Structures are given as C-alpha cells and as structure tokens.
Protein 1
Amino acid sequence: MKMKGRSIFTYDVYAPTTVTTMLRPRRQEGQSIIKEGFNIEPPVPFSEYTDIYGNPCQRTILPVGQVIITTEVEAQVNPTKVIPNPAPPFMLVGDLPDDIMHYILPSRYCESDLHEINMLAMEIAGNLVPGYEQVEAIRSWIHSNIKYQYGVTDASTTALDVARNRIGVCRDFTHLAIALCRNLCIPTRMTVGYLDKLKEMDLHAWFEVYIGGDWYTFDAVQEKTEGYRIEIAHGRDAADVAMITQYGNATLQSLHVEVELLEPEPPQENK
C-alpha cells in the first residue's frame, strides 16, 4: 500500500533557537520510502545525523519570527504485522540479544521498577501465559480503562501518573504500556509516526514488543491494533523520540497533520 504523510509545525520564535528534529522517516524493512521532503521557511541551513537507535535527525537554529517546518513522506508500507498463530514464545532475559537488553530497563517516563507498576501489571496479566497474552491483555486494559483526552497531560507526565489518573493521549497510553510490559521482563519500545486509522488526525505513538526474536506492534489507543503506519522513530520512551526538541525561546502555535492512503485497500473476503 502506498501511504502519504504530511506535517506542518508553525512556531513563533522570540530569540534565535537551536532545535533538533526527528521528522524524516526511517528506512527499514516493511517501509520503502518513495519520496520525502523537509523544508524550513524562512530557509536556514541544517545538518543531519543518525542517533543511537538509527533514527534520522536534523539540527538547525530557528531565526526570530514565524517559522514553518514542513515534512512530507510517501512510502510503500505493509499493514500492521499480524501476530502468528501460535503466538511467538516469551524469551527469558538470559536469552535476549545484547542490543535488546536496554528495552527492559526503566526509563525517564516509564518507571517499570516501581511497586505500584508491578502491582498493576500483576493485576492485569500476572496469571496469563508469559509473552503475547500478557501484552495483549495490557493493551486491551489500557484501551478500556484509560480515558483519551487532550490537554490534561504534559511533557512531565509519566507512566505512573497515567496509572493513577487514568487519562491521557497516545503518548501517555504508550508510556503506561511500556512500563507494564517491562515490569514483566518483556522488551518494549516506543514508536512514533503516521497511522491512517485515527479518529482525530495527529502524529501518533504506539508500542512494540520483542517476543520470539522479532518486534511486533501494539496500539492501546485503537480498539484493535490495525492499519497502515509510517515509522519515523523509535526509542525507550518520548525522551528518545521527541519530534522537535528546542533549546531556546520559541512557542509552537499549531501542528497540522495529514495522512492519506494512495491506493485502495484490498477487498475483504466474506467469512
């Protein structure tokens, strides 16, 4: 399926402000980038680098005044990977690859080592078969028990806050899922990008777990994990995948996001 994503960030900049951005898509298995664009208006020079997770990053200094950052991508993508039947087996920590180990550790927004998180993880999934069944139970519980609402959480909100207050947006749903899964020794990471199936279009966050030697997508915002996605970045939590990080005096005035499937979905077979 061909899929297109576009985002427009409009900033008011009050003093020259250094920013790092994470707005260009990853090139990886499952998504082939056909074309992309990255534009800053008024034009300013920028440099690019790749972070420790393989995410493409940009760096520049925004000038004083109104600045508009526009990014576009067209990609050939696969639908969200279906969990095979039987489900992939749970992997013991001793069997995990070295480069996966940091995804079972606590991180800034995902306090997976706290007693309160452990108690909730046990309540939701403690009696289930380790691995996929636990992850799906956590995803489903969050979808059913956490209220989706804008404007009630901010950049300081952690998984523990969400567990207590039971409200938030996709970032918060994802942080709680990550903390609960990691508490059960299941490697979990945060992924951000475009999703075609959203009631309110925005840049989106979901989580991926490592089971059976591969990564699988789970989305607690959706009733059922599905749809087409363009991945921009992944990391331990939002601290690693912030789409724009600023070091100065600038205010985001608006964010406009568009997602479009450029080919019709294949017809569904009658069952």
Note: The chain has two domains: 2-78+243-261, 93-227.
Protein 2
Amino acid sequence: MDPKYQRVALSDGHFIPVLGFGTYAPEEVPKSKALESTKIAIDAGFRHIDSAYLYNNEEEVGLAIRSKIAEGTVKREDIFYTSKLWCTFHRPELVRPGLEESLKKLQLDYVDLYIIHFPTALKPGEEIIPTDEHGKTIFDTVDICATWEAMEKCKDAGLAKSIGVSNFNRRQLEMILNKPGLKYKPVCNQVECHPYLNQSKLLEFCKSKGIVLVAYSALGSHREPKWVDQSSPVLLEDPVIGALAKKHKRSPALIALRYQLQRGVVVLAKSFTEKRIKENIQIFEFTLPPDDMKVLDGLNRNVRYITDEYIKGY
C-alpha cells in the first residue's frame, strides 16, 4: 500500500484507492441523493467513486465529480471512477457502446476502471432484466472470453484506464486468465465481502494471480427486498463487532471496513448520511491487532446478502 495516497497498485501499473465510495441506492431513494452524497464524499476525502450503468445515477454522479473539478477541489486525475458493463451488453459489438453510454451520462472522457458487472449475459435491449411472458429471465448465449476481448479494446481505445470483473468465481476468472491470446488480465474482482462472508479462498486465489479483490456490501447490506434475503442477520448488530467497536472507540462500521483493509482488500463504503460518510474516512486512523483480526475471521458463516434471484438457473 502507498500510505501517502492510501492506494494499491493494479497489475497494469495504475493505482486504486483502497477506500471507495459506493453510490448504489434502492429505487425509492431520489437520484438527487447520489449527486449530494458524492459531493460530500469528495469533500470528505474520498477519491475512489464506484457506480454502474445498473444504478441509473451516472448523470448525477458525473455532475458531482465535474462540479468538484470546476470548483478546484480536485483534478480529474485525482478521481478514480469505476463503472460497470451491464449484462445486456455482453455481446462483443455492444461492449463499447455500453461504455460510451455511461461516458455520455457522466460527461467524462474516460473511466478509470470498467468491469463486467456479472458473468451472466442477458438478452440485449432496453429492459434491465428482460423476462418472458411467464416472468422468467431471458438469458443470452455469449462467450465471456469474447466479451473480455471487447473490454480489452476499450482499454486500448483509452476509454477505460483499467478493466476488471465483478461477481466472478474462481472458475470464471480462470476462463479469462487461460484464454489464448489474453492481452490484459482483469485487474480486480469486485464481490460481496464482509465478516459473515469473508471470501478467504477467493481472496487467496486472486492474490496469487495479482488480482485485487474489491469488497461491496462490506457493511452487510442496504436490505432492499428485491435483492436481499430479509431473514439474513444484520451484520452491524453482531455482538462481537459491537464489542470490538467499544474496545477501539469506533463505530461497528469502521471495524468492518478496517478488517477488509488489513486483509489487502479494497473496500467500498456506502452511505447517504453526511455524518457517516465523514466517519468512514476515519478508517485510516487506527489499526486492529492480529488477535482482533482472528476474532473477525471467526465470524465467517457464508451468509450471502445479495441473492441475485434473477440469475437462478443460469
């Protein structure tokens, strides 16, 4: 880790800030919240902003970034912006148009990181999750390696500085890594990761291949019924995390975020509350001793908050 900028090197020579600001929000949250909170996050010191075509807020997030550049708070090169290729754009000829659509909304010339959101291809079209008359998801048959080749072309064209993946398992990563004629390997794999699902095997594999693991839902989850199993336990109410928070005089959220940082995981923190956004940046002000890390490792119970019902049966 580069302590001055709190960032780590990616395999292609670029650097990613270890703490990122997540911008996903349930549909009922007004889009103006993304604008407002991204500005607060940049003011608080966040330099890594994570969004996606799926989140339907790139216009607002882009406006927040551009307004902070116009004010002189940051330069474009200070900001590390991530966007994601949605599942309906997996056909090779749709990959670049998908990225260009995001860039148009953002009104930016490039993204710092472009990642394949899920390894599952869906039928192209306007619908985010296309379904048939029985409400069944309509999948598309696309070779993930062909999608990856189109991602490589986006990097060559300068539209994305780095390219990676999200929600890939080891087997899916290996399909790309073992692809004949591979030009760029994925710099990262963004997955659900928190003390209840610590992804230790996947983390070990990614580290062995020089792939950075990026954690989303690091604080548990927003618990939106569409995506999340409502009977799942609330991570930040865990008594063990609570006891460590008391011990270190920090919030349970900071304990969960710091845990990832010390494992070599890049972590996304999502909040639309000014107080919490400012609090999350305190992740760099303390360290968890090895014994506390071991205790947190012991919380793993393979609880997955994001169930992705729509891709069942893929």
Note: The two ends are 38 Å apart (CA to CA).
